Amino acid sequence: MSCSLELALDRAEGALLRVLGTIERRGWNVLSVNAASTSHEYTVSVTLDGVRDPETLCRQLQRLVDVREVRLLSESPTG
Fold first, then answer.
1. In terms of C-beta density within 10 A (0-12 exposed, 13-18 middle, 19 or more buried), how is residue 57 classed?
2. Whose C-alpha in 3, 37, 50, 70 is 20 to 30 A from the C-alpha of 59?
3. In this structure, CATH architecture of domain 2-74
4. Which sequence spans correspond to the domains of the chain?
5. What's 43-61 look like in SS3?
6. Interval 12-69: pLDDT, tens
7. Alpha helices in the chain (DSSP H)
8. CA-CA distance, 24 to 26, in Å (whole number)?
């Protein structure tokens, strides 16, 4: 299953690395990452591929200290 997420992160040292590390450790493959930043926050769009439930990943990412918001944009089965 592939999915796309959009995250809003505090612009703190290591925030993006923590998010990507969590995604990888939870068994997802990162297909693409697009990040933009302002003086206070990162907006990150991530396309992933994996077999686990993306809603669970969203909840796990939301628990990270610098994550403001996580939105699941799309889900699609891979075949």
1. buried
2. 37
3. 2-Layer Sandwich (3.30)
4. 2-74
5. EEEEEEECCCCHHHHHHHH
6. 999 999 999 999 999 999 999 999 998 889 999 999 999 999 999 999 999 999 999 9
7. 15-25, 54-62
8. 5
